[in-house]
Amino acid sequence: MSTSDEPPTQIDRPVTVGVVGCGNISDVYLTNLTVAPEVTFVACADLDLDRARRKAAAHGVPRAGAVVELLADPSIELVLNLTIPAAHAEVALAAVAAGKSVYNEKPLAIERADAARLLERAAASGVLVGGAPDTFLGAGLQTARRLLDDGAIGAPVAFAAAMRSHGPEDWHPDPAFFYKKGAGPLFDMGPPTT
Questions:
Q1: Which is nearest to 25 in space by CA: 141, 173, 183, 185?
Q2: Does 66 lie in the same domain as 114?
Q3: Residue 47 class from Cβ within 10 Å (0-12 exposed, 13-18 middle, 19+ buried)?
Q4: How do residues 77-87 score in pLDDT, each as one tens digit?
Q5: Do 120 and 150 belong to one domain?
Q6: What is the rounded distance in angstroms from the CA atom of residue 189 to the CA atom of residue 179?
Q7: Which domain CATH number covers 84?
Q8: Nearest to residue 24, comparing CAs of 177, 133, 131?
Q9: Do 38 and 117 belong to one domain?
Q10: Residue 163 and residue 185: Cα distance in Å, rounded?
Q11: Does 38 share its domain with 100?
């Protein structure tokens, strides 16, 4: 998602990216995007410096260090924010304050006011903000949203949801954050579209 109605500017070189948050989801991004010619990863950062170093080494990212160092690095144009949901707004706002565009793993922020502030500050700074769209922009949820907006089922009064598998404690190596404010099934598995 862009902070402007204008299409993004095309560039003729890779965008330099720094990863903040080197937990479980970072492997997917680093594995898939290190082969994409549109991006070049230049640094990994995490509260756990050893984890940042291991992740950088495993994926051929040249540098690893503290978050404050990554944000101060003038060579980084885009921060890929893969922190826990409770830290998304703080890290994204710091990236924007440092003059960097930011792409958050879902959700964009826990509180709507934080997301609005992030978008306002990004627009004022001339940087872009994006969020992982794979869930809420997917065909299933977009179709459901269109049907609701079109009144296909009348006025909803309740809903029920089910997951296809066990919770994250079955597959995630450190799932505690899934059970704190800002995570859980609605924020992590199916963020609302409004």
A1: 173
A2: yes
A3: middle
A4: 999 999 988 89
A5: no
A6: 12
A7: 3.40.50.720
A8: 177
A9: yes
A10: 8
A11: yes
Does residue 109 share a domain with residue 55?
yes
pTM given for the model: 0.74
109 burial class (0-12, 13-18, 19+ CB within 10 angstroms)?
buried
pLDDT higher than threshold 80 for residue 13: yes
DSSP string for residues in 150-167: TTTT-S--------SS--
Alpha-carbon span 31 to 26, nearest angstrom: 8
End-to-end CA distance of the chain: 14
**Over the stretch 119-140, which tens digit does the pLDDT of each residue have?**
999 999 999 999 886 565 667 7
Count the residues in the chain: 194
**Paired sense of beta strands 39-45 and 129-131, if any:** unpaired
Average pLDDT, the chain: 84
How many folded domains does the chain comprise?
A: 2
Q: How many CA atoms lie within 13 A of 23 on its CB side?
A: 15
Q: Evaluate whether residue 86 is within a structural domain.
A: yes
Residue 1 in domain? no
Containing structural domain, residue 171: 139-189
In a domain, 8, yes or no: no
